[in-house]
Design brief:
Its cofactor is Zn(2+). Catalyzes the reversible cyclization of carbamoyl aspartate to dihydroorotate. By secondary structure, this protein is an alpha/beta fold. The chain has 12 helices and 19 strands. The protein is globular. It binds N-carbamoyl-L-aspartate and zinc ion (2 copies).
């Protein structure tokens, strides 16, 4: 089915009408259906380079289906799924399984991330080449949740991924500096008497790894940057010509460690929420290009892992459904980023880092029809009703946030219509048709 979208505002700010047919943008001026996008901002489909979809192994928290449905609700058309599943995504078999679940359900393109070390154990490299050469064609490798701490293993991983233009995504956390850490180390942690996670535990690993990446000549990506000092290290590395990229999460752009005072475990996350100075430095770094992308670090956990004492609670927060709202609040409405910048940091550049095709030239004839229409003038109270994944550990419940995703279109078919996700059977059916069309094209 072809769709004509009229009166949309493109990322550039220009008003435009366009048509999508058989999975791509076309020049056609008529279609089976028309969406009037008056007042709506069109963006290329969002690409999340960092999400935890929990399948296989932790299906009570999330599955590929529920996580990709949450992604569609948030305006995403592609999601990179972190490797800390059970079994771990450290073999060709597991990554192929995750990828094909995504293809079957059809809510988003799911690209598995491969583990750097076997079982995330930190002692032996995983079958990186086998995952890279598998049907999943893995290009991003990460032990996220854990830091690749051994410098020799990190060096070897960088050497390995270099051979096929892959990238190692590091969870930068010096483990010896963060034993039992519960929150950011600073004034608030001293007052509360909680063990601190110092900024230097992140910054020292980033400093080491940019030097290793320079030595090897390989691509390095730093997950969830959270401190002003990390921004300084990345800025230095980029000025030196090192092939490093960095991401920041929506929550690190908006929330601070002051929120820990209430001991509400929805605010417990790794890396921890930092100081206001850090938030300001992260916003400025995203605006000036030192930080390349936004990624959600969507980390679903079951109620029992969050409805307990602060010390016992798991680290992590869900973020797919709220990501664009929080980005609008933290960096668009504050004047740090334009919508064209958002298209770059939340679609084009993450796709490029992950070597995902089809996101280079959105809205141009022939390119893949992955897009989202949002109403930036909407404002509503975020609640469990706003969520489409399985878990409810969102830090934004009860908070008023701007913006609303009205339509998400993945490979030319709708996954979100009139502000809500489309029925799973319809999406799976559309995905089958779309796959057939692209095979015959
Ligand atoms: N971010 C988190 O606090 N938790 C993540 C792991 C991670 O991203 O490091 C998780 O898997 O739950
Ligand atoms: Zn992490
Ligand atoms: Zn993560």
């Amino acid at each position: 089915m072809s769709i004509r979208i009229i009166n949309a505002t493109l990322p550039s700010g220009k008003r435009a009408d366009f048509t999508i047919d058989r999975g791509v943008f076309t020049d056609a001026s008529s279609a089976d259906r028309t969406i009037d996008a008056s007042g709506l901002q069109a963006l290329p489909g969002l690409v999340d380079l960092h999400a935890h979809l929990r399948e296989p192994g932790f299906e009570q928290s999330e599955t590929v289906l529920s996580g990709s449905r949450a992604a569609a609700m948030g305006g995403f058309t592609a999601v990179f799924a972190m490797a800390n599943t059970m079994p771990v995504q450290d073999t060709a078999g597991v990554v192929e399984q995750v990828q094909s679940l995504g293809d079957t359900h059809g809510f988003a393109t799911v690209r598995p991330i491969g583990a750097v070390t076997e079982g995330l154990g930190g002692t032996k490299l995983s079958e990186i080449g086998a995952m890279a050469n598998s049907r999943a064609r893995v290009r991003v490798f990460s032990d996220d949740g854990k830091c690749v701490h051994n410098a020799l293993l990190m060096r070897r991983a960088l050497e390995y991924v270099k051979t096929f233009d892959g990238v190692v995504a590091q969870h930068a956390q010096e483990p010896t500096l963060t034993v039992d850490a519960q929150m950011n180390e600073g004034a608030v942690s001293s007052e509360l008497g909680l063990a601190g996670w110092p900024a230097v535990a992140e910054e020292s690993i980033i400093a080491r790894d940019v030097l290793l990446a320079e030595h090897v000549g390989a691509r390095l990506h730093i997950c969830h940057l959270s401190t002003a000092g990390s921004v300084d290290v990345i800025r230095w590395a980029k000025a030196r010509g090192i092939a490093v990229t960095a991401e920041v999460t929506p929550h690190h752009l908006l929330l601070t460690d002051e929120l820990v005072r209430g001991y509400d475990a929805r605010f417990k996350v790794n890396p921890p929420l930092r100081r206001d100075e850090d938030v300001r430095a992260l916003r400025a770094a995203l605006a000036d290009g030192t930080i390349d992308i936004v990624a959600t670090d969507h980390a679903p956990h079951p109620p029992e892992a969050k409805e307990c004492s602060w010390a016992e609670a798991a680290f992590g927060m869900v973020g797919l459904e709220s990501a664009l709202n929080v980005v609008q609040e933290a960096v668009v409405d504050t004047g740090h980023l334009t919508w064209a910048d958002v298209a770059r940091v939340f679609s084009q550049t993450p796709a490029h880092i992950g070597r995902l095709n089809g996101y280079d030239a959105p809205f141009t004839p022939g390119s893949a029809a992955n897009l989202v229409l949002i109403d930036p003038s909407a404002r509503s109270t975020f609640s469990t009703e706003s969520l489409r994944g399985k878990s409810t550990n969102s830090p934004y419940l009860g908070r008023s946030l701007p913006g609303r995703v009205m339509n998400t279109i993945h490979n030319g078919y709708e996954t979100v219509r009139d502000g809500d996700v489309v029925d799973s059977d319809e999406v799976a059916h559309s995905a089958r048709l779309a796959a057939g069309e692209s095979h015959h094209a």
